[in-house]
Amino acid sequence: MPDLAQVQTSFGQALLKMEAAADVIPHLRGDSAIVERRLALYRGNMVAHWTQTLAAHYPVLEKFWGEEFFAALARAYGRAFPSRHGDLACFGAQLPLFLRDFEPAREFPMAPDLAQLEWLVHQAGRAPNAESLKTGQSLLHLPGTAVLSSLWPVASVWNMHQEPEAPDWNNLSWQAEGALVFRETWTVKVVPMAYEEALALSEHLAAGVGI
């Protein structure tokens, strides 16, 4: 007779993989067919939460790819990196890494960097309130401020998607670009910057050197 921890582990696996349901069904109360339908309902709700949470954290990617593709992405990501934190605001941190090897996203090579930028925006929005800057300090000293350098114009793409009208890709310069992410009062802003400048700032931050 398996202990409670084993049953809970099997239950979790059954939610992640339909084929794993057979291991836990005998330990759940009720007719096996009814239990299987209940597991399917739980599984569907879980995937829906994955999709809604990732869409909240990565709205530009969701808008770019559309709901159907994004839902499939959320399902694949959730199975690879199931939530292990009680706060859903932490779910999705590994998406930039996941996208590097996600075959259906290979036609959009900017996706990992754009995802990294969106996660920085998400973190900046959740950062603690900043105290007033001291003399000689810059935005880089504020909580949630971050710098990203990319071979793609991710900052410009992000800003274009903040406008109510559809992005005009003809006005976009497809070149390497940096991004400065910071929160001004309650609004997170993304400022495009030269790629070389972003690299230099990133090196200073990594070395703990004040700017």
Describe this structure in words.
- By secondary structure, the chain is mainly α.
- 48% of the residues lie in helices and 9% in strands.
- The chain has eight helices and three strands, in the order H-H-H-H-H-H-E-H-E-E-H.
- The protein has a three-stranded antiparallel sheet with strand order 1-2-3, sandwiched between helices.
- Helix 2 crosses helix 3.
- The chain is globular and about 60 Å long.
- The model has no long low-confidence stretch (mean pLDDT 81).
Enumerate the strands of the largest sheet in spatial order, edge to edge or round the barrel.
Answer: 1-2-3
* Percentage of β-strand residues: 5-15%
What is the 3D shape?
globular
Main structural class = mainly alpha
Number of helices: 8
> Helix proportion of residues, in percent?
40-55%
- Residue windows where pLDDT falls under 50 for at least 5 positions: none
Helix and strand arrangement:
Elements (H helix, E strand, L loop, with lengths): L3 H13 L15 H26 L1 H7 L1 H14 L14 H5 L11 H16 L19 E5 L3 H7 L16 E8 L2 E7 L1 H13 L4
Antiparallel strand pairs: 1-2, 2-3
Helix pairs in contact: 2-3, 2-4, 3-4, 6-7
Protein traits:
three-stranded antiparallel beta sheet, 48% helix, 9% strand, 211 residues, mainly alpha
Short description:
With 211 residues, this protein is mostly helical. The protein has helices at residues 4-16, 32-57, 59-65, 67-80, 95-99, 111-126, 154-160, 195-207; strands at residues 146-150, 177-184, 187-193.
